[in-house]
Amino acid sequence: MISYLCEADIENIEWRSLGNHPFGHEADWRTARDILRMMESFPPKEKDSRVRSLWFCVKRGEPDDWLTLDEYRDYAEFYDEPAEMVNTRRLEEWQQCFPDETYWHEATSNAEDDWMILIIDNRVVIEVAKGKEDVWDDPRIHKTLKKMRASIGLVLEKACREDYEEYLSKELPMRCRHGFIKRSDYWEICGKDNCYDDAKMGDEEARTLAAELKRQQAKESIPRIPSLCARDYFRILKDAYIAAGYHNDSEGLWSAVPPEDGRAWYERFGDARDEVIFTMDQGSPEAFSELYSGDHFFNHTFEILAGSSISRVYLYPRPDEAGWLLSLFGSITWHSADMARIWHHLNKTETPAYLSDANDVARALLGEDELFIVPFNESIWHQGKSHFGREVISCIHLPEENAEAVIAQAEWMKVPAPKPLLAEVVLDNDEASILMSALNIYSRIWVGQYDHIEWELRNLTLAFSEFNLKENARKKAWLLMRKLILPELSDMPLEASHGIWSEHTDDRGQTAYDILQVVRHARAWHKNTEGGIERDFDRPWIHGSLPPIQCSCEGEGDGLLMTIALTPAHAALMADAASVMSSIVQQDLFEAMSHYTMSEEALDIAKSIEELLPSPQKGEGGVSPTIESLLCKLGEIIAQSNHAKDAS
Fold this sequence. Notes:
Shape: elongated
Strand content: 5-15%
Structural class: alpha+beta
Strand order of the largest sheet: 1-2-3-4
Helix content: 40-55%
Number of helices: 25
Largest sheet: 4 strands, antiparallel
């Protein structure tokens, strides 16, 4: 039975970048590659990119998915209380942690040739690169990745249906979507207190300053200041800070009479990292001008309100032939009221300044602009100014309170529903037959039936006596190798296996068998429309993570042609199976088993088994032209997904 992610799995993942470390267990890296293949069955987000994103839904799960009773007892340190009381508390806390029945998350992947990254909600889940020697191990990651593979496979299956776009449009919560709402409408619903710094300004002041801002002169017409030195600049800043209300310091850092030294104001509210402006001759215009000839022009010297990269305000003195122009610019999101007041004061005191975004500031003060609503998993502080062809000043998340009213008032963007990159491959009779053989042996190796590799090798050789002579030695080696790769089958005969639908069987083995069932079912019914009693006529039972392929046949006998509609994930797995078959045909067991394990000890055993095989005679051991043709056709589909242009 396939196990899917629940919300507790998402919460319990240790969210950290692994810094290009391989996983402690080889199966984890392979599972991660499977997830990547599924993601690459969708178009990329942008041209010439391998970045894919999709939304997936998870259930809340059961209390034991979060913490079992024993785990909770240790976690909460309730060692002496009765089990019934502890369990009651556990269920109450579980309900508080996961109040909803379903949750939505966004998965994003990117990859190069030997590197990949998987992100959920902008948090790195895995980041790995092949060829690194460091080892990282977490016993939870294997189980979680298997669930993730199944959950993303479910999305891929839904996306292969025609109703997926409608399903996503109906089911995806509004907190996962993009939208716009007029700032004044948002104020009316939520109040100004929830909309950044504009809450500091009353309506009358906002209207007055907005009217002045809209009448701002063109930059070329604004008078210049004939001369500036550091002392003049600090004096201007002190007056600007007072005008913006910064002398009313709630933390009591300033006395009733503000200090006359403007440097103190700058050190308190500005960046003050560039000490050159303090160490220069404070009264020298020449020294001040030299700031523009060195390395200080583009640094923090003129940052008058410090903060992160998206919350700073600058007052740049810009020189030209006529003198100095004070240019005020910075974060409108955080400081539109501050900037309006500073600009107003400077111009009122005949220290002319140009506000770069005067019109946007005026619109924000009046509530005339639009707020951009971003999904819960996107940062509102790192959004660009242009969204869906519209200019915005501020971004918000959908508020928890008054959410329904905001949803009703907002304009919502269409939900992008990625459609899988479905492709068709046409196989002739020989290619279809070799594909079935490859899928058969590929899935059998996954369940542990290594005796079938022996059967394939026996059918390929002409030196039967020499082959049979060393059969027992090879059998012992196969058992030793399988013990390393599939320890659950230790001490069992070589023909034993997990069973294709066992929980221990890797998803790739199950998916390969799914494809095999569909192919042989389509071919059997095409050859005999009356049906039959062999298993080839049985309805396929799909157990792997990938959706079933679509298969049809035409023609008869050697002229039979099979058309398969599949995703790049199917093509990659089929190519994997064909590559294993090709390696077995060439008696390259080291390469064949490298598709199943990274254990150096196990692969050394594979190398030793090669030495126990008869040397290929003339005409034996070459690469089958049919396998080469099959791999070429599948490779084209994979390459097309890697170089897909547009999500549309």
